[in-house]
Design brief:
Elements lengths: L2 H10 L7 H12 L12 H11 L6 H12 L3 H6 L5 E5 L2 E4 L6 E5 L5 E6 L1 H7 L6 H9 L3 E3 L4 E5 L8 H21 L1
Parallel strand pairs: 1-3
Antiparallel strand pairs: 1-2, 3-4, 4-6, 5-6
Helix pairs in contact: 1-2, 2-3, 3-4, 7-8
Length: about 190
């Protein structure tokens, strides 16, 4: 069962209504990150309290995920879809996705202005190299990433100092997933 399906099932069981504390606990239990550690204003609990009050306590998973994405730029649907993708994702100051068998790390700053991509230890141990695959290097440099051959890290920072757009994130993740398919076929 996907993480979003787990979330939907738990929320469906809360017919009597749910509090922001319970909602935060559900998200932490399923997605393994803590909304309350986000350095944002208004605070996540305040946003969720207002949302729950407006919804009269009864909410659906898609509604909650929309509110979280709109207010905190955390796309729970995308995280759920990436669960088995072999990508470790560090964002908003915490690990959003991470497994020992992941091949690449996508590391973003707290404000999504910059992103770095690099191979995991697992990748290096199983491929014999700490360098990103050539196809991924090319795809990332085509997107404007700067790649450091010595460290094996490709980085991008938004030239305007604004969060990178969702389309850019999608294109980046598509390139990483394409490389994962190629690498996985050889492991």
């Amino acid at each position: 069962m996907t993480k979003t399906a787990q979330m939907d099932k738990l929320l469906d069981a809360c017919k009597e209504g749910i509090s922001s504390s319970e909602l935060i606990a559900i998200i932490q239990g399923i997605f393994n990150f803590d909304l309350e550690t986000l350095q944002v204003s208004p605070l996540p609990r305040e946003v969720l309290d207002a949302f729950l009050q407006q919804a009269a306590g009864s909410v659906t998973g898609p509604e909650v995920r929309r509110v979280i994405n709109e207010n905190f730029a955390i796309n729970l649907d995308a995280l759920s879809a990436l669960e088995q993708a072999r990508i470790s994702l560090y964002s908003k100051g915490q690990w959003m996705l991470r497994h020992e068998w992941d091949l690449f790390v996508v590391h973003t700053g707290t404000d999504d202005v910059g992103v770095s991509i690099y191979p995991t230890t697992y990748y290096a141990e199983h491929t014999g190299t700490a360098q990103l695959p050539q196809e991924l290097l090319e795809a990332l440099t085509d997107q404007g990433f700067t790649c450091d051959a010595e460290s094996g890290i490709c980085s991008y920072t938004s030239p305007r100092g604004e969060p990178v757009p969702d389309a850019f994130k999608g294109q980046t993740m598509k390139a990483v997933m394409s490389a994962i398919r190629t690498v996985s076929a050889r492991l």
